[in-house]
Amino acid sequence: MHVELIVDARNAVGESPVWVPEENALYWVDIPAGGLQRWNADTGHVDAWTAPQMLACLARHRDGGWVAGMETGFFRLRPNNDGSLDSEPLADVGHARPDMRLNDGRCDRQGRFWAGSMVLNMGANAANGALYRYSAGQHAPIAAQLDGFIVPNGLAFSPDGKTMYLSDSHPLIQQIWAFDYDIDSGTPSNRRLFVDMNQFPGRPDGAAVDADGGYWICANDAGLIHRFTPDGRLDRSLEVPVKKPTMCAFGGSRMDTLFVTSIRPGDDHDEQSLAGGVFALNPGVKGLAEPVFNP
User: Fold this and answer.
1) Could you say which EC number(s) this protein's record lists (predicted)?
2) Domain CATH code at residue 267
């Protein structure tokens, strides 16, 4: 499997890749830097903006720009051509403790924005993380829909929107769950174990779902992207040239390219010279366009 380094981004924590077909471009974030980045597939040029807080996850806004999960809650972001970034607070989430931020997130198929929260120090092993749902007009603080997580991650929705996936990527947990999802109310129920990642290489990080319902999960620490079938069977594992892939997303002109972001650790750079980069590979299946936030 050929893997191409498309941007030697050297992100501390690259995350939340989102393909924008109208621009033939990929956007993603560098969480601790508050960085929003854009790669133009036609020219290879990279643009960058800086948000006022750590920036964890993105979804396109129906009316232009982005809705984002940051440190304190949900924001509206509008990148400008001069490199400036307009930032508008939408709603705080009311974290359980002050040393927290939002983490992995995306829209459901109906355009509601979801994001999980985590304590900044993963070593604290603190199960204060929660999952929040944001729709326009909500007032802060937003109530948690699910709680008791250390590092909620791997959020994704089946092609019909009726199954929600969620993981906890902390080394003490490493499990992926499936939920029945009410597409009318935006309510998950009937939580059940989908995959126990303790049985496979790597910790479950960010995810994507392909057009056939396959669940692709970045196996952090293992340098792999696993695909699980809708019934939870491991279908294939693809290698990437870094130990810590973080999240994947489908894109390209035919939606058959899998883009992968990654982490650049503070050490190990001699062996991990490409760490923190953004990669592209052809996984052999097509994906779905990422849902747009629909207020």
Assistant:
1) 3.1.1.99
2) 2.120.10.30
